[in-house]
Amino acid sequence: IMKIGLVLALVFLWILHFYCPQAALKKTPLFDFHREQGGKMVEFAGWSMPVQYKDSHIVSHMHTREHCSIFDVSHMLQTKVHGKDRVKFMESLVVADVGELQDNQGTLSLFTNEKGGIMDDLIVTKTDQGYLYIVSNAGCADKDSAHMKARLAEFKAAGLDVDLEFLDEALIAVQGPSMSRVLQAGLKEDLGKLTFMTSTLATVFGVPGCRVTRCGYTGEDGVEISVPRSRVVELTEKMLANSEVKLAGLGARDSLRLEAGLCLYGNDIDETTTPVEATLVWTIGKRRRQTKDFPGAAIIVPQIKAKTARKRVGLVSTGPPVRQHTPILSSDGKVIGEVTSGCPSPCLKKNVAMGYVDAAFAKNGTALQVEVRKKAVPAVVSKMPFVPTNYYSG
Ligand SMILES: *[C@@H]1O[C@H](CO)[C@@H](O)[C@H](O)[C@H]1NC(C)=O
Predict the structure, then answer these.
(1) 105: how many CB neighbours lie within 10 A of its CB?
(2) Which of 331, 383, 384 to mutate to test the pocket of ligand 1 (most atoms within 8 A of CB)?
(3) What is the helix (H) or strand (E) element at residue 344, kind and residue range?
(4) 259 is in an annotated binding site
(5) Is 296 left (phi over 0), alpha (psi -120 to 50) or beta?
(6) Fold of 25-74+169-259
(7) Can you give the residue ranges of the GCVT N-terminal domain (predicted)?
(8) pLDDT digits (tens, 9 = 90+) for 90-146
């Protein structure tokens, strides 16, 4: 009977594992480290991630703008595309002119669908190591990998030479004006030569096999470091030994990217928005606009000239915080759109938000209103970034 009891208990625990969301959350290689460092863990896209540490999210935000913060972004999907038809493969999925990228140069791009909607945003880097290096969103990881695998099958069936490798590496973002001083101490290569959106392989603080890419999602100078998972705690600890550096979580990451005017997939862009509506036309390669050979080009390219009925804009307001789904009103009170993300800006001490409005109201400086708790509050359409970016151009 005891044996049966034990078996039943194990079966119960096994079932619980599938029904209890906490137990099923995925963990990055820094999970235990986050908890040791006082990280408050929350669910994000199926992962248990730190939303903040001991400092408040505002303190972390300001620390990133003034000094340097490390963010764990290991939950993002990292993929290598191999084979001599890799550029053609990638261009069959995204809007960028991948062919025109220099060796070790990357760009922000978009996976689009046949209806012109945005399936995900990603960074694609054309390395000089014979592969493309892709980083896309954790929340879209299953969708992106299935999408790439389906296209891979088509390419292989057509006899083309391409292969996918989904990486098991950790990924950390080191962001802020002191990043270059902090990182240079652990790097043989001259960081002065690594300009915004370029990438290199390097040994970092004695950890070999790191890919260092000068990019990030805070608007600050920064890098993302792809590092073998077994060495990521060690690398993070070595950088944290510098008093300029602190850990920062998802809370700071969200307000930093919003001040920088950067979209969060699932909030500000999704499959119902096109690159033109999202004012991301700059991501569409010039040649790709002519060849019209990316998914949804038949819908997206004509929108560039004809304009769209709605457009993503930035909004600044004072008073109560503006959040996702807050209605946007014209000055005479008609609903003309909706906020897709918003927060009080720690740097500007005003509310910043982005959302979609009827195109007639999209001009910088247009006086609008946002409806917060049934009250109309004045808001002004503003150019983004709200806070000037600080990317390193050399
Ligand atoms: C946007 O409009 C504001 C007035 O609301 C003005 O001060 C600012 O210079 C404008 N910015 C640009 C880039 O046109």
Answers:
(1) 17
(2) 383
(3) strand 335-344
(4) no
(5) left
(6) Gyrase A; domain 2 (3.30.1360)
(7) 30-286
(8) 999 999 999 999 999 999 999 999 999 999 999 999 999 999 999 999 999 999 999
CATH 2.40.30.110 fits 309-382, yes or no: yes
* 8 A C-beta contact, residue 97 and residue 108: no
What whole-number distance in Å separates Cα of residue 159 and Cα of residue 142? 26
| End-to-end alpha carbon distance in the chain | 73
Q: What is the pLDDT of residues 335-371, one digit of tens each?
A: 999 999 999 999 999 999 999 999 999 999 999 999 9
Question: Which residue's entry shows tokens 């290598």?
Answer: 80
Q: Which residue has the tokens 């307000």?
A: 255
The C-alpha atoms of residue 366 and residue 309 are separated, in whole angstroms, by: 17
Map tokens 């040994």 to a residue: 203
Q: 316 CA distance to ligand 1 centroid (A)?
A: 12
Task: Tell me what pLDDT residue 327 has.
Answer: 98
Q: How much is the pTM?
A: 0.93
> What is the distance between the alpha carbons of residues 349 and 346, in angstroms, rounded to a whole number?
5
Q: How far away, in angstroms, is 385 Cα from ligand 1 center?
A: 12
Sheet strand arrangement including 68-72: 199-204, 207-213, 222-227, 170-175, 68-72, 245-247
Q: Is the predicted pLDDT of residue 198 greater than 80, yes or no? A: yes
Q: Which atom of ligand 1 is nearest to the CA of 380?
A: 5
DSSP string covering 38-78, please? T-EEEEETTEEEEEE-SS-HHHHHHHHHHSEEEEE-TTSEE
Residues 6+ apart with CB under 8 A from 225: 171, 172, 173, 174, 204, 210, 211, 212, 213, 235
H runs (alpha helix) in the chain = 2-19, 21-24, 31-36, 57-66, 86-91, 141-157, 179-184, 232-240, 250-259, 286-291, 297-306
- Which amino acid is residue 243, in one-letter code? S
Residue 351's CB is within 10 A of a number of other CB atoms, namely 24
292 pLDDT higher than 80 = yes
Ordered by start, the domain boundaries in the chain are: 25-74+169-259, 309-382
Residue nearest to atom 14 of ligand 1 (CA): 364
